[in-house]
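Reopening: Group-specific protein still failing for me.
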Amino acid sequence: MKKFEKGIIYFFSFIFFPIGLIVWIVSLFNQNQQFKSVGRTALYFAATSFCIQILRGVLNFVLYTNTTLNY
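Support: Ran it again with your exact input. Result attached.
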């Protein structure tokens, strides 16, 4: 797999985390070790993206509720 293809997969796994899960599931059934490694890395990118989005949502909620209660 070329570096450009890996970069595209990692980019879309980070932006749209379900894509990372799909790539990981597909890589589970593939015999190619290189593709399995790409799938595992895509899963890591997806998990990181998911955690960042959850953290951003919680911070947004906390900051919004704190500013509206002060008025």
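The chain has one domain: 3-69. If you still see a failure, please send the error message rather than a screenshot.
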